[in-house]
């Protein structure tokens, strides 16, 4: 027998009973599945903990087939006993120490960032301290270790509060015991915690490869935000496409005051909101009402690949924002050159435009304040802001197809239009009043 014990505290994952604070963000079944991902990560992590492993489970009917299937036969199982979480933890620690162990550490399972090194450090520290406690970022604790079964630290009046860690530390020190604060970690209880974990794993390959990381990536919530203004000629085709390709995404149309039949043509199966005129204002309003982790801004005259949602998720595994490459629905030579220039500008200079379908982490979008509400060039300003902050767009494997309706006419007319668009951007870069540029651009539809 090892002189040290490690207790993993969990419940049997049951839809509607586990991780309920994540509902309705996740369905009851998804809440069960992410709990299973936590358990799989803890199983893998605990193999590197230098201690005997105990799994204390809670089950309403006393059965725990999922927990047993995940952890197998290399651990010792016990059912939790007690009237509340504090008493249950105390009884587990008391039972394990009564078996002759010198020390033990207990953790929950909703801390997927927890490393075996931290658990081993906590166990090692019990050679010199009576207790160890690991704080969570929300004011609770994810780990408690002890050498003697004292009940006072577990008899708190309230466990779902921001003062649990402080109250526990006070209870220990008031009895004259020495205590060490060990590594702080964040747990996953709410949708905000999911989004924070998602951002963290873009910079940590270990988290991306974890069972929890793979689950979160595969189930990332995408909100498709489509600003519309007098788009009766395009809005039906886009809806047909999105009904087939965005089955697991939220789709929001944001009308900027259309005077044609646009609003009437939008299906009630999609969300429709209204805002002031102007793409920036419309996209910000769409983001405000969106529930997704990833915000995808799509022009109404665009066509996306059939698997565009999965392509966005794939890019967002490693990037905070991204866009599609662009192609135009024309074989005209000048549109081909336009495509080359547009994609070069996005990938090499980090300045994608709106017709390339920009998508971004919700937290980052809110951090930079969304789109600046100017009448034109909001996409240029948005991309430039991100580049200045050090963000470069991730690249999808497929391209988005954009309408050439602004480039109709003979070859020389196409050239004139391209020149005008280039000159507008140049004037903006050189500080010309954006309202004057907007007047020159016109209300084109």
Can you walk through the features of this model?
The protein has about 450 residues and is an alpha/beta fold. It folds into two domains: about 5-190, Spore Coat Polysaccharide Biosynthesis Protein SpsA, Chain A (Alpha-Beta Complex); about 220-400, Spore Coat Polysaccharide Biosynthesis Protein SpsA, Chain A. About 40% of the residues lie in helices and about 20% in strands. It contains 17 helices and 15 strands. An eight-stranded mixed beta sheet has the order 10-9-8-11-14-13-15-12, with helices on both faces. It has a seven-stranded mixed beta sheet with strand order 3-2-1-4-6-5-7, sandwiched between helices. Helix 1 packs parallel to helix 2 (about 65-70), helix 1 (about 30-45) runs antiparallel to helix 8 (about 210-220) and helix 16 packs antiparallel against helix 17 (about 435-440).
Q: Which class best fits the helix and strand makeup?
A: alpha/beta
Please outline the major beta sheet.
Answer: 8 strands, mixed
- The overall number of domains is 2
N→C terminal distance: 77 Å
Under CATH, the topology of the largest domain is which?
A: Spore Coat Polysaccharide Biosynthesis Protein SpsA, Chain A
- What share of residues are in beta strands? 15-25%
What is the rounded Rg? 27 Å
Task: Supply the CATH superfamily name of the largest domain.
Answer: Spore Coat Polysaccharide Biosynthesis Protein SpsA, Chain A
Strand order of the largest sheet: 10-9-8-11-14-13-15-12
Mean pLDDT over the residues: 89
Fraction of residues in H or I helices:
40-55%
Shape: elongated
| Spans of at least 5 consecutive residues with low confidence | none
CATH class type of the largest domain? Alpha Beta
Enumerate how many helices there are, as a single number. Answer: 17
Please identify, by name, the CATH architecture of the largest domain.
Alpha-Beta Complex
Number of strands: 15
